[in-house]
Specification:
The complex is a heterodimer of chains A (about 325) and B (about 280). Chain A is α/β, with parallel strands linked by helices. Chain A has helices at about 15-30, 40-45, 45-50, 65-75, 85-90, 95-100, 130-135, 150-160, 210-220, 240-250, 265-270, 295-300, 305-315, and strands at about 10, 30-35, 55-60, 80-85, 110-115, 140-145, 165-170, 175, 190-195, 200-205, 225-230, 230-235, 250-260, 280-285. The termini of chain A are far apart. The chains are: A alpha/beta (about 325), B alpha/beta (about 280).
Chain lengths: ~325, ~280
């Protein structure tokens, strides 16, 4: 399929890709329906709503009900994509997702935009830093966190083909697109962006490009870092991680999420029995987020290029 | 079906409730017994369901939103032919398919997994929405507890169903007036129930939920009501059919011991004989 609306080198947010891909899926598959909880403009489900008003259901500000309605629709053969902010459709309705969607393994896709601290100015109440943790703990749930709009587009299209519940972690913040139409998203597979033997950087989502930039600059300083993009957090690419652990002995994980329960924890779980090595987890420490422009917050929490470089150097010297 | 035939089925369902919870040494007989007439009427008179074709896309749907009353639900499904009645003796047993709360993946005839209160009703709304979208004429029924409607999600679902005018949806409230901590009016009163649903744009019907004539008339009225969903507020007696359980909150979630089991089964046996 080559309807990719995102061009390498241009800027877009992963939520934009979600909206475009959902619209494309709506055109291709009559059983795809969309639900939102009064945020269709922000989640971009409005693209679908405008073209398919009869297959779009705005539930109002009632995320728990939206999850249950999605379950009911899925039980009747529909493929619902329900959208809201990550905070409200992983946190607010966690138990509805658990008991009404994940337990019966219903074919519901959750489009969770505005994840992480890059929601920015809205501050801590809206900065969901635990959704990877909450969702990946659920049996039957798949968790995907794309790193740019092109990858997100491919991942959303792929989510349609995955039987059962899928959680798609999406961002509001626009970033430079690093993938092109030839990229193939594969559930359970990581993508090696750069080879290296001194350590492995495993990143997911929005900080992936900064991780690669940091690694490229460190190369000139004599640190040869392998860089892995890990959009599929559950299932995770255990094979690729074990290989990296055995070959490079050190791992740094990078995510726009609390360092408990997220990618870092998933990596530790993946390697601990077969290839236990020294792992440094970068992300948001055990504190709530705060208001500020997204780029400044990434800098503050050390998730921009300079912050990552510094942390990696410290780790290599420790 | 004549009322007397429905009464005979209900008597068997009541036995199934006592048998299954006794063998499980746990479970919820009180609310299963209060809803027995509703289970009976739905599965043996009202709904188009076929145990030979449990996934028929045109079937009517049922969601037991008060999922803890699985013993009554399972007994009705067993008598309808979805699985052997004798399987009820293994309710809640390890490695057996009859889970403590309804499980759509494991139990034949169950349309939605439920048990966490307040959630089933939203799923029923989704099913009604799918039916409308597919231009199918199946109906969706959800049975809720009167304590359950203290959950906020019930009102999110009701607001949506009312706003969307889902007239293929019938909610039934099993108003047995008791929840775990006591009388619902004392714990955190949801009364007046009918006026609340009316305000959420539902057609409301108040009935005696243990009386087949009233259930029959209400179901007909619900089917014939267009442009809005219907809620049937069914006044019932918790524990009905077993003398020592009637209106006793202590029997919400407790199984009989050997002695109690014999008394309960003896009472039900006699009640059954009186119907022959």
């Amino acid at each position: 399929m080559s309807n990719m609306p995102f061009e390498i080198g241009k800027k877009a947010a992963t939520r934009d890709a979600y909206g475009k891909a959902l619209l494309e899926l709506g055109r291709l598959h009559p059983e795809v329906v969309a639900l939102d909880a009064d945020l269709s403009g922000s989640t971009r489900s409005e693209y679908f709503a405008k073209e398919f008003p009869d297959r779009f259901f705005d539930c109002g500000i009632a995320e728990a009900n939206m999850a249950g309605i999605s379950a009911g629709l899925a039980s009747c053969g529909k493929i619902p994509f329900m959208s809201s902010f990550a905070m409200f459709t992983s946190g607010r309705n966690y138990e509805q997702i658990r008991n009404s969607i994940a337990y019966p393994a219903l074919n519901v896709k959750i489009g969770a935009s505005h994840a992480g601290i890059t929601v920015g100015e809205d501050g801590a109440t809206h900065q969901c830093l635990e959704d990877i943790s909450l969702m990946r703990t659920l049996p039957n749930m798949k968790v995907i966190c794309p790193s740019d709009a092109a990858e997100a587009y491919k991942a959303v299209i792929a989510a349609y083909e995955i039987e059962g519940p899928v959680y798609l972690r999406l961002s509001r913040f626009s970033t430079v697109i690093a993938h092109d139409d030839s990229y193939e998203f594969r559930l359970g597979k990581g993508e090696v962006l750069k080879d290296g033997g001194d350590l492995t950087i495993v990143a997911t989502g929005l900080p992936v490009p900064a991780s690669l930039e940091a690694a490229n600059e460190l190369e000139k300083e004599g640190i040869h870092a392998r860089v892995i993009n890990m959009p599929s957090i559950k299932p995770i690419d255990k094979e690729l991680l074990i290989k990296a652990a055995l070959e490079t002995k050190r791992i740094v994980t990078i995510e726009e999420h609390w360092i408990t329960g997220g990618l870092g924890s998933a990596v530790l779980e993946a390697i601990s029995e077969d290839a236990p090595v020294w792992v440094k987890r970068l992300g948001i420490p055990d504190v709530f987020g705060e208001s500020g422009p997204a780029a400044e917050l990434l800098t503050k929490f050390g998730l921009d290029k300079e912050g990552i470089k510094k942390s990696v150097k410290d780790f290599m010297n420790s | 079906m004549e009322n007397i035939e429905l009464q005979r089925i209900a008597n068997k369902i009541r036995k199934g409730i006592i048998i299954s919870t006794f063998h499980a040494k746990s479970g919820h007989p009180g609310g299963s017994l209060s809803a027995t007439e509703i289970f009976t009427y739905l599965f043996f008179e009202e709904m188009k369901v076929d145990p030979k074709n449990p996934h028929d896309p045109d079937r009517d749907r049922f969601v037991l939103s008060k999922g803890h009353c699985a013993p009554g639900y399972y007994a009705a499904l067993a008598l309808k032919g979805f699985f052997p009645f004798s399987d009820l003796e293994q309710l809640r047993h390890t490695d057996f398919y009859l889970q403590g709360h309804p499980d759509m993946k494991m139990v034949p005839g169950v349309d939605m997994s439920s048990g966490s209160l307040g959630q089933g009703v939203s799923a029923a709304v989704g099913m009604a929405l799918a039916g409308r979208l597919d231009k199918k004429d199946y109906r969706v029924y959800a049975l809720l507890g009167d304590g359950e409607i203290e959950e906020g999600q019930v009102w999110e679902a009701a607001m949506f169903a009312g706003a969307r005018k889902l007239d293929n949806l019938t909610l039934i409230i099993d108003n047995n007036n008791l929840q775990i901590d006591g009388a619902i009016g004392d714990v955190c009163s949801p009364y007046p129930i009918d006026k609340k649903f009316e305000a959420f744009n539902f057609h409301t019907i108040n009935i005696d939920g243990n009386d087949y004539d009233e259930i029959r008339a209400a179901m007909k009225e619900a089917r014939e009501t267009k442009g809005m969903p219907t809620v049937i507020i069914a006044k019932t007696i918790k524990g009905l059919g077993v003398s020592f359980m009637e209106n006793e909150v202590g029997w919400h979630g407790k199984a009989t011991n050997e002695e109690e089991y014999k008394i309960a089964m003896d009472e039900l046996e006699k009640a059954g004989e009186a119907l022959e």
